[in-house]
């Protein structure tokens, strides 16, 4: 039975505007549009919308989802099996992180003792969800070198890198309302530049500037970075661009 756009929006829990946008970009077009302009969605449309939302949940950009589901080789059943595998892996990691948070709270309350190693259980450095974008921007060689460097890290070094990253992000978040071109901001962003080059390979000034731009162009980056403070991604983007420009 065909359903109107408002019915679909209410059923799924997304906005009518989102469905209109999916139609505009050719991601999900209704089976039929009536003479009076009503969009009518079929059961096949619903199944495809489910696929789209699964891909979104796994952090795949809309432009990539469109390319995937438009491919002649796309198999919905096979995709569902892969979704299940990846979501179960994601759930397992989240369970470990939740357990780490719980133990950390108890440790801070003096209820249990916690080793430094236990403080970082659940963090996964083996997979980079932004690798495809990085390859497009910087090429396979740069990304492969970075991956090799990460894989060669000991667990202690990985923990050290995580702690240092948190410290730098926290510091940047504390000054995000200042000018990104200020001396204070530039000193702080240089720490980020040095950090990336120390732990993850050779970042040129151009690559550093491009990475900063990705922080605001890719909503996944923005969301993750802004957890430290709203507007941090934009602040870092501007500070990184200025740093690259004045150090050429």
How would you sum up this structure, described in words?
It comes from Aliicoccus persicus. This is DNA-binding transcriptional regulator, MerR family. The chain is mainly α. Helices cover 67% and strands 3% of the residues. The chain has a 3-stranded antiparallel beta sheet with strand order 1-3-2. Strand 2 (32-33) and strand 3 form a beta hairpin. The longest helix has 33 residues, at 76-108. The radius of gyration is 22 Å and the shape is globular. Mean pLDDT is 84; it is low at 133-138.
Distance between the termini: 62 Å
Give unreliable regions as ranges: 133-138
Give me the number of helical elements: 12
Task: Assign a percent range to the helix content.
Answer: 55-70%
Biggest β-sheet: strands ordered side by side in the sheet: 1-3-2
The global form is globular
Task: Give me the strand/helix succession.
Answer: EHHEEHHHHHHHHHH
Strand element count: 3
Structural class determined from secondary elements: mainly alpha
Mean pLDDT: 84
Give the class-level CATH name of the largest domain.
Mainly Alpha
In CATH terms, the superfamily of the largest domain is Antibiotic binding domain of TipA-like multidrug resistance regulators
Rg estimate, integer Å: 22 Å
Corresponding CATH architecture of the largest domain = Orthogonal Bundle
Main beta sheet strand tally, sense and closure? 3 strands, antiparallel
What is the CATH topology of the largest domain? Answer: Globin-like
Beta-strand level of the residues, as a percent range? under 5%
């Amino acid at each position: 039975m065909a359903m109107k756009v408002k019915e679909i929006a209410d059923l799924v829990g997304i906005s009518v505007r989102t469905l209109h946008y999916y139609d505009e970009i050719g991601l999900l077009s209704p089976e039929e549009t009536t003479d009076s302009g009503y969009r009518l969605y079929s059961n096949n449309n619903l199944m495809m919308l489910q696929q789209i939302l699964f891909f979104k949940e796994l952090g795949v950009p809309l432009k990539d989802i469109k390319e995937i589901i438009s491919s002649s080789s796309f198999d919905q059943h096979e995709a569902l099996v892969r979704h299940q595998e990846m979501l179960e892996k994601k759930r397992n990691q989240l369970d470990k992180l939740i357990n780490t948070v719980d133990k950390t709270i108890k440790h801070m309350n003096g209820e249990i003792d916690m080793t430094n190693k236990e403080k970082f259980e659940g963090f996964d450095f083996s997979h980079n969800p932004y690798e495809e974008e990085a390859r497009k921007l910087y090429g396979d060689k740069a990304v492969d070198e970075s991956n090799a460097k990460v894989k060669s890290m000991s667990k202690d070094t990985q923990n050290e890198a995580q702690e240092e990253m948190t410290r730098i992000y926290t510091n940047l978040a504390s000054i995000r309302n200042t000018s990104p071109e200020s001396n204070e901001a530039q000193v702080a962003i240089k720490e980020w530049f040095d950090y990336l080059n120390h732990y993850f390979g050779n970042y040129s000034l151009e690559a550093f500037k491009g990475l900063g731009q990705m922080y605001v162009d890719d909503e996944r980056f923005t969301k993750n970075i802004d957890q430290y403070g709203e507007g941090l991604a934009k602040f870092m983007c501007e500070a990184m661009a200025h740093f690259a420009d004045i150090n050429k």
